[in-house]
Amino acid sequence: MAFEKLCLIFLLFLLLALLSHSVVSQSSKNISLGTSITAVEKGSFWASPSGEFAFGFQQIQKDGFLLAIWFNKIQEKTIVWSANGQNLAPNGSKVVLSTDGSFQLVDPTGKQIWIASPIGNGVSYAAMLDSGNFVLVGQGSQNWWQSFDHPTDTILPGQILHQPAQLVSHYLPNNYSKGRFLFALQDDGNFVLYTTNYPTDSVNYAYWTTQVFGSDFSVVFNQSGSIFVQRSNKSIIQTISSLKDISAQNFYQRAILDYDGVFRHYIYPKDSKYSTRNHPMAWSIQSVTPSNICLRISGPIGGGACGPNSYCNFDGKMKSCNCPAGYSFIDPNDVMKGCKQNFVLQSCDEASSQAHLFYFNEMLHIDWPNTDYEYFKPVSEDWCRQACLDDCLCGAASFNEGACSKKNLPLFNGRFDLSFQGKALIKVRKDNSSSLIPREINPKNDKSKLFISGLILMATSIFLWLLLIVAVYLVLYWFRRNNQKLPKSSQFGPIMNLKSFTYEELWEGTNGFSEELGRGAFSVVYKGVLPNHPKNLVAVKKLKLLNDSDKEFEAEVSAISQTHHRNLVKLLGFCNEGEHRLLVYEYMSKGTLANFLFEGQRLSWYQRVQIAIGTAKGLLYLHEECNTQIIHCDIKPQNVLLDDSYTAKISDFGLAKLLKIDQAVTTTAIRGTKGYVAAEWFKNKPITMKVDVYSFGVMLLELICCRKNYDSNVEDEIKMVLIDWACDCFHYRRFDLLVEDDKEALSDIERVEKYVRISIWCTQDDPLARPTMKQVVQTLEGFMDVPNPFVLQSVTS
Predict the structure, then answer these.
(1) Nearest C-alpha neighbor of 304 from the set 333, 340, 261
(2) Which of 260, 634, 652, 742 is catalytic?
(3) Residue of 83 and 44 predicted with greater confidence
(4) pTM for this one?
(5) Residue 546 lies inside a defined structural domain of this protein
(6) Fewer CB in 10 Å around end: N or C, the chain?
(7) pLDDT tens digits for 284-326?
(8) Are residues 606 and 695 in the same domain?
(9) Phi, psi angle pair for 71, to nearest 5°
């Protein structure tokens, strides 16, 4: 009986062994010796047994192929390893597992591009495993070479990096050559992120480190989704990332040193049933290291987190590089190259000071901390500005709490930093007047050339005189013939420093009013090209006037033409010809604020703050500072336009008056837009500048929350009306609910609370309880405390 039991146990172990062998044999598809893959547009590949990973060629350029491993079951064929990022393979290249066991990539002529170097000899076969590891297997099932031992920029679950090991970022998202950042597990055990002295591989500046030293350390990415540093005895020294509230088996994962220098842990649902709002069917970021790369990189040399003359902004997940006003990217496709001036720098010729030709663009919370060459304290901001204007070497200045720092060019390691309460002052030439560059004069003394020049000058003079006589005759003839046809409006254009366009000019400039930019109840805006305009592009507004009085039109155009402010769209000219009434404005390249708040990619919190302040300053100017006070009557995101630098500029100011609607008519279709209209429009109360304050308060809430003031599609009814929802959040002190998916705003929750207070203050039913725009600007910029709007409301009522 005991013998039978022993036999049964033996058979059971034998069965388990066979099952185990069966499972192992199915975990990979063996690639036999002599097999190859050719780089063609729709080439074949070697897939892992489950099909989750593939090894083969990815076409990166028209005739450039990358030998790579990628996730094969998702729509985005995301590459996790590559062999030849520095040297793409041409069409027709092959990767061959030769009969002698060598594994190499060759071009169509047989020239070697890349080769795997096995530890031993006698490779039996290759395999693409379900782990994402590609292996060359020798006798005894030993992995003599594997991609996990030669990572590029990515590690996968199950992968371990041993000392010394490194990852090198790619140059750009679609450029797999070596980039500017390095991940290193050093011989001393320290795990460090470096900037490199690009284009060399040498390290420059360590911007993040574990500060752990010793031997026998490794970086592990385990199957549970944790990335950590451990000792040889398996004790964990430091955890870098881990999954929270989700099951690792339901998600694909990868960790990559991205091209922008941030080490990110990504996840992707394996099936739509695992997809949620926070984890859509796309790669979503689980963690980032370091937490803010913009603030971490501050080395004295090198491009930094962004390139020269640019500044870095980090929203908690993604980094963006930006150029200050007056600058543009050297290469828009490679922002890390930095920014260049769009103007001529100040001359250091003492005989002709050019200080009066320059002004400053202010940028709050922006600094380039390592480019100072002079420092002064205590001084005033005006003193700081003048000191930089008078110094031809000063490209920018920083002013913070009575301290002034002069900065020379190029500017390095710029960053947006809310903890920096000062401002950057960027020196820019007025009107981009590059014509002031002195020309080189090289006079010639050769007498023959002087004689020839004299003859040419004489002949030219005679010709010009004849031409002038003919021109005068033609002008007199034309004037006599067409004097009665001239529109009266042509007589008042020069007074206002505006150009009076003919309808034919604007017809041709807009190609027959063919490209529409937007439309309202009483106007349509078209894109136009005017050759004599400095930037060529203009916006032409075609008005559908209800009143055809020339004098009224002229009076309103005259009022608008006298407004000059950086936060107002500039009026360039007009047409008042017959029945045609048109206004010509500067062209705003980024379009309306509404496009970014409700339709396009969300603006950063910093950008939204600057837009709020800029719009408020523009309204303050219209209400109190321009010669003729103007009530806008229709403030909303659609009427706030953005230029190349995302500077907010109010459009359509004065057009409510321009339309000359009967003052008794106060329907929302004429005097404003639903959701932005103050209560007094419906109560026959006097209309004051406080109607604009109300509309601004609504728009400020939209800027904070990045949603419309009314949204019937929200799941919770109490959130449909944004003003009501904001008041509820105010009462319960839950301002985080208004910006719950905006990490940048959450990190600045005190400002969020203050701005919500301001918006509620602005949207009081009683106009007397609302602030003036001057008070709004002061509170937005932090120069005045925000009162409790509900206390004010109870007092006024």
Answers:
(1) 261
(2) 634
(3) 83
(4) 0.55
(5) yes
(6) N
(7) 999 999 999 999 998 777 778 999 999 999 988 889 899 998 8
(8) yes
(9) -70, 125
